[in-house]
Backbone:
């Protein structure tokens, strides 16, 4: 009986909480696909989380209960996606962060215009909990597509992974994960070659999406041919396109009189980079395009790491919204796995590597390889929730993409990749009302992302005052924890 009362009450509350229609007036609509802005200013009517109607400014007459928002000539882009996020990164579980602190990352995505994330490894119970609260509007956060635990080798790299030691087990493991609610399978670096190939074959048969690190024992071309849907971080590519691929694979490298492990590592990495073979690379990128193998470069993650010493100063003001456990981890040279051994020779290498990855973004894009914007927010230093996507898109423009092409990697591309393009990815009637209003035209300058006026998340309008209030609340919730 109590159960029933609770049910009625919660239904009533939900009814009370239903948002009134919203009319956003006098805005320009940015068409990221056609690199164009609407010919005239428009009004957008939002009802029940959807874009109900778009018409020329002044044509839509609001009903009495409609909230009218003056857009003042803002430029509207679709809500963005972060396609590589770890708001519950297993890498930092060893510090026992509280769930309440992890949850403070959720609203920040939205405040900065990110209305969807692809979670690339985290605890499914927590993710389900976030989803529930976001749906009930008791937590402001993005839509979450999740891969659940990392699928790694018998001795996994991180906590919470599923270590697979037998190729015969892949079907059972894949089925049980999908049945438990994960949206795709995330493969990881230590997965043995035979197990990865068996898993990929099984996933293909069942129609499960596979994304992740190309395992150490597999070439990116092999993973593409095997059917992986998306490769992350450009891992293993440089090795495959080196003219010395075979020697490097066999460990046949002449180190001269270099003896220290780190110096040898840097020497080997430089050798791989310096023997980048453009023809091999071009053939590989053609294969990616042909096999519809998508890529998430996470270039801002590589950049922030290579230039950490400068960037940590430039980003100083962002730290006040970062939960303390991440503040500490992102600044700890001693414990952070991504900040080890920062000797000049290694930093020089990392900077050269970033420059090469930037070239690769442009080359792949020109060859027709589909790209996704992802930040790796989580344990990786300076990969900010929300703002990280702005950084990613700015670097894609620096790499040679047009601002519209960069925006596509965070809007229509994720929607297509996830099979959600009927309801997301562009600003159009009938689609979910996930919108970002910018003060200036992002097609002219991608830095327009720094000037967000308002965000609409699943029909809920967060204007400047509301966004600032949320950030203030986050700051106080971080407190001295
Ligand atoms: Zn990651």
Residues:
């Amino acid at each position: 009986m109590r159960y029933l009362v609770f049910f009625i009450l919660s239904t009533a509350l939900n009814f009370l909480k239903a948002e009134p229609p919203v009319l956003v007036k006098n805005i320009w609509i940015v068409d990221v696909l056609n690199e164009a802005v609407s010919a005239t200013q428009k009004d957008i009517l939002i009802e029940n989380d959807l874009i109900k109607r778009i018409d020329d400014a002044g044509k839509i007459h609001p009903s009495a209960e409609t909230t009218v928002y003056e857009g003042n000539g803002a430029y509207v882009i679709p809500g963005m996606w972060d396609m590589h996020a770890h708001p519950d990164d297993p890498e930092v579980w060893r510090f026992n962060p509280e769930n309440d602190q992890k949850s403070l990352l959720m609203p920040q995505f939205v405040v900065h215009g990110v209305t969807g994330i692809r979670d690339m490894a985290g605890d499914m119970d927590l993710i389900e909990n976030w989803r529930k609260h976001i749906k009930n509007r008791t937590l402001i956060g993005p839509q979450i597509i999740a891969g659940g635990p990392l699928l790694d080798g018998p001795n996994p790299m991180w906590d919470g992974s599923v270590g697979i030691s037998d190729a015969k087990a892949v079907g059972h493991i894949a089925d049980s994960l999908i049945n438990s609610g994960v949206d795709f399978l995330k493969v990881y670096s230590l997965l043995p070659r035979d197990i990865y190939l068996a898993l990929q074959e099984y996933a293909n048969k069942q129609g499960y999406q596979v994304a992740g690190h190309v395992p150490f024992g597999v070439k990116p071309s092999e993973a593409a041919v095997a059917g992986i849907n998306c490769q992350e971080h450009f891992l293993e590519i440089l090795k495959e396109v080196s003219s010395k691929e075979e020697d490097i694979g066999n460990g046949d490298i002449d180190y001269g009189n270099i003896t220290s492990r780190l110096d040898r590592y840097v020497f080997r990495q430089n050798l791989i980079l310096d023997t980048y073979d453009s023809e091999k690379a071009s053939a590989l990128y053609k294969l990616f395009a042909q096999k519809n193998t998508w890529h998430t470069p996470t270039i801002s993650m590589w950049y922030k790491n290579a230039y950490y010493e400068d960037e940590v100063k430039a980003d100083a003001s962002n730290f006040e919204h970062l939960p303390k456990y991440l503040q500490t981890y992102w600044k700890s040279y001693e414990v952070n796995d991504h900040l080890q051994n920062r000797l000049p020779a290694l930093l020089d290498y990392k900077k050269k590597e970033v420059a090469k990855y930037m070239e690769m973004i442009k080359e792949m894009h020109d060859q027709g390889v589909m790209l996704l914007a992802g930040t790796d927010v989580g344990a990786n230093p300076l990969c900010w929730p929300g703002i990280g996507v702005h950084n990613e898109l700015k670097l894609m423009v620096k790499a040679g993409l047009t601002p519209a092409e960069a925006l596509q990697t965070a809007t229509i591309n994720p929607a297509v990749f996830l099979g959600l393009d009927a309801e997301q990815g562009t600003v159009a009637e009938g689609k979910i009302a996930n919108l970002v209003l910018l003060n200036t035209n992002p097609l002219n300058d991608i830095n327009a992302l720094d000037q967000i006026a308002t965000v609409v998340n699943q029909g809920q309008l967060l204007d400047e005052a509301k966004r600032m209030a949320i950030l203030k609340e986050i700051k106080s919730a971080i407190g001295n924890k």
Observations:
- The chain has one domain: 80-417.
- The mean pLDDT is 94.
